[in-house]
Amino acid sequence: MIRLAHVSKIFQGKRQVTALDGIDLEIGRGEMVSIIGPSGSGKSTLLNLIGGLDTATSGEIAIDGQRLSGLSDDELTRLRRDKIGFIFQFFNLLPTLSCMENVSIPLHLRGWPKKKIDERARELLDLVGLAHRMEHLPDELSGGERQRCAIARALSVYPPVLLADEPTGNLDTHTGADILKLIRDLHQRLGSTVLIVTHDIHVAENCARLVALCDGRIEEDRAGKLGPVSMGGKL
Fold first, then answer.
1. Which pTM value belongs to this model?
2. Which residue range forms the structural domain that includes residue 6?
3. Is 235 domain-assigned?
4. Residue 145 in contact with residue 133, Cβ under 8 Å?
5. Is residue 76 part of a domain?
6. CB within 8 A of 78, min separation 6: which ones?
7. Does residue 51 fall inside a structural domain?
8. Most buried of 135, 139, 162, 198 (most Cβ within 10 A)?
9. Burial class for 16, CB neighbours closer than 10 Å (0-12, 13-18, 19+)
10. Is the sign of the CA dihedral 138, 144, 147, 153 positive or negative?
11. Chain-centre distance for alpha carbon 159
């Protein structure tokens, strides 16, 4: 489903910074994988490259058989729209729009009719436990409810790939555990390929596979625990 071959990313500034250094990684369809590492290890850069939000300096990335380097800007936009859902640490909800309206945005971009959009948005908000908050604005929601709304938006087109960047990092321990359980439940129900970037070892261990980065390189790739969701200390 996701393949990276010899991928490097170098940032040029006052000094050259190698964020990723020759990454080789394959993630199968339907896997739930955590990408873990300390600040500056390259994990968010890796997620941005896989999501087509940035381009690699060298190497090749393919999503579902499509090489990202061979896509035009319009084709890359369509791939992100149709195949990839993003969950961000700080939710990225539009503050003047209700939950329904935030979840509906990707569907409007696809040109869906309003009735179909409303049906899907209601279905998703119910799926993440926000049926009673559909008309509320983000400022009227708790942190956990905002993240649930963001997850519903990311799932709006039932994408085959779901990318989560520190989805529990801005939440308290209990709420973070609830969000992680929700992501796991949705993964099992929908069968999406899920990548979670985190610096929390307990979040990482609750995935089927753990990939650890250090200084832009993979230093470990092993099975996680994928047992009952637990949260605790951080690296």
1. 0.87
2. 2-223
3. no
4. yes
5. yes
6. none
7. yes
8. 198
9. exposed
10. negative
11. 11
CA dihedral sign of residues 162, 192, 171, 103: positive
Q: Is 76 helix (H, G, I), strand (E, B) or coil?
A: helix
- CATH, residue 144: 3.40.50.300
* Region for residue 189 given its phi and psi (left: phi exceeds 0; alpha: psi -120 to 50; beta: otherwise): alpha
Copy the structure tokens of residue 30: 């339907």
The single-letter code of the amino acid at 140 is E
> Tokens representing 113?
């009719």
* Overall residue count recorded for the chain in this entry: 235
Residue 82, H or E segment: helix 73-83
Contact between residue 148 and residue 181 where contact means Cβ atoms under 8 Å apart:
no
Q: Which amino acid is at 176?
A: G
Cα–Cα distances in Å, from 218 out to 21, 36, 154, 167?
9, 10, 27, 22
Read off the tokens for 70: 């061979």
**Does residue 229 form part of some domain?**
no
Q: What are the structure tokens assigned to 190, written together?
A: 């929908």
Indicate the number of domains in the chain. 1
8 Å CB contact between 8 and 56: yes
DSSP reduced 3-state for 154: helix
